[in-house]
Amino acid sequence: MSPTSPMPPQTSFLSYVTPSPTSPWGTYLSQVDRVVPYLGELGRWAETLKRPKRALIVDVPMEMDDGSVRHFEGYRVQHNLSRGPGKGGVRYHPDVTLEEVMALSAWMTVKCAAVNLPYGGAKGGIRVDPKLLSLKELEKMTRRYTSEIGIIIGPQRDIPAPDVNTNGQIMAWMMDTYSMNTGATATGVVTGKPIHLGGSLGRVKATGRGVFVTGREAARRLGMSLDGARVAVQGFGNVGSSAAELFAQAGAKIVAVQDHTGTIVNTGGLDLSELMPLLRREGGIGTFAGCEKAADEDFWDVDCDILIPAALEGVITAARAHRIKAKLVLEGANGPTVPEADDILHDRGVLIVPDVICNAGGVTVSYFEWVQDFSSFFWTEDEINVRLDKIMVDALRKIWDTADRHKTTLRTATFAVACERILIAREERGLYP
Hints:
Blueprint: H1 24-35, E1 54-63, E2 69-80, E3 86-93, H2 98-114, E4 120-127, H3 135-149, E5 158-162, H4 168-182, H5 206-222, E6 230-234, H6 238-249, E7 253-259, E8 262-265, H7 272-282, E9 292-294, E10 306-309, H8 318-321, E11 328-330, H9 339-347, E12 351-353, H10 355-358, H11 361-375, H12 381-406, H13 410-429
Helix pairs in contact: 1-2, 1-13, 2-13, 3-4, 5-6, 5-11, 5-12, 11-12, 12-13
């Protein structure tokens, strides 16, 4: 082939993914395209950001309690490892797809770099509704999945953590399975573990705390007092409920909450001292008495100052963006706002603190847990919260300075800061061979 001959078309597993502009991977690619003009000479490496390093699709066969055999499809994607081992959660959900996991792993790459953690991005999942499994079946599935992805995970290679529908118990099973297969206890292979198995204090509420800390700093920039501010929360798991509690402690009123069991509204403020016990007892907020019940779609019309989408990706569509009344949106979930909605909210003067910085508290305390496991020396919860708050505030300050300098949104500024760090690492490491 002569030097001027066109290169033949290249194929990869990306050819199996056909993203739309509003799909998770399509949203991520749009975000990368928007940041390229701010990367200068590093822009020649930008294609690196659009190609996951490795994607593993695994079959997870399992004998059910009734004796039948079922097969589930699992994934583990490592998007970029230039800055360190992969880091990212594992979700169990009936809508999990390869494309979704690819996008989530890419956002983890950006998120870790945005707060300057020595990690790359990864993500995993199984397409399953865990609510339909017994505890025994859930354990079987987790252990088989861990064995299947065991060829690419490890304390210095890729460290899973909890995500949607996974928790400390599932991380304990993953850690034990990996340890049994390698012949030595490896507490550092996962984070988000139970405390007595090497877990970290403060980890469960860390993501919600990060949402609060970045929201507090953003509110100061806007001249908004949290005392009396009206907050609406979509998704009331660990992230949404923890953030809501911290905002309430700061004097804010939680005026609306939505989860998989329904939408509740109280313009005077929901009583969290009654709502939280009900959430722990019933696993949802739909039966709460001290409120009005609303249709789920009406949540986006609630009159509020701060909106926290803390459920799944893609919920803030263009149509909903026109209806949102909040002045500040804090993305507790990954990828909740599609690009067109991003533009609409920006044009309307709504400030968005993007997911890749707003919800980075979880991975930051996961990093603390990983460090503590290696040293076998554990910190107090006060120490962890002080370190977390400083990292989040410092990271947001640098991002805000970048946004002011380039006159761009916080999302593009976050990507600019993070992608510069990722691509500098890529350039300095060079290509092998």
